[in-house]
Amino acid sequence: MRYAWLQATTIAENVRETLKQAWRDQSYDLQFKDSKVYFDTQKTLPSKEKLNPSPEEHLPRLNRVLERIPTEYGTVVFYSKQNDEENMYAGFISKTEQVYDLVPVSSLLVWELSSAEIVKLLNQSIPFLRIQGAYGSNTIRTYYYRMDREYPQLLLEVDGTIHEVDIDNDQDKEIISVWGIPSITKIHTWEENRFQEANVTLNLKAESVMPVEREGQVLFDAYREPPQAADGQRPEGTTATTPTTYKYENGKMVPVS
pLDDT band at 8, cuts 50/70/90? Predict the structure, then answer.
């Protein structure tokens, strides 16, 4: 009887160890899909209400200009609209004074947190205009416009905190976004003249994923409920707060030993 009990205990321990290793050693393919955008760039028409209006006065329902941000491609204008006391908007005036209405950027209450600048993400000479704003105290929204076209072309909208970093050493920066609690982490990459994205949290079957920097390398800590052995017990030393660390490599999340 004692031998049978010891044998059963040994089998249970072996199952626990097998599950523990499978959980920690498995690589995961990331499923990328094209990123969606929900706003269009609108070229504005000359104002009919004023004689010889300034370019800014072409902005639709202009109430008040809040800030002008010059760039090498033109000027970003943050402004409020008539009959809208909640949102702050962005417009763009090109060097040739073509005027474009872009997007609602942030809440008017926190519009001072907004920013706009030209950023270099790729090894190619493709400039992007990054516009960032906030809604409330916790929601950050970022827009990326391609600027080497006839007009500012919106290609990516991202919610959450962003990190622009080359995580696969190909000289192109990926955009890592982290949103919510538990955190949903996504990787946005540039492929064939468009942005694609993968939900890292979902692909890793994790409760939460956080990017971390260790020794100059960006890694990903995945938090998930540990697997159960046949006897219903968790593997020894594993809890929901024990992360598994991964690195991004060739479209996969590979565990780091």
Answer: very low
d(CA 179, CA 165): 17
The residue with greater pLDDT, 195 or 24, is: 195
Q: Is residue 28 part of a domain?
A: no
Residue 119 lies in a domain: yes
Q: How far apart are CA 204 and CA 221, in angstroms?
A: 10
Could you tell me the residue range of the domain that residue 127 belongs to? 35-159
| Contact present, 206 and 224 (Cβ < 8 Å) | yes
Cβ neighbors of 223 (< 8 A, separation 6 or more) are 182, 206, 207, 208, 209, 210, 240, 241, 242, 243
Q: What is the pTM of this model?
A: 0.84
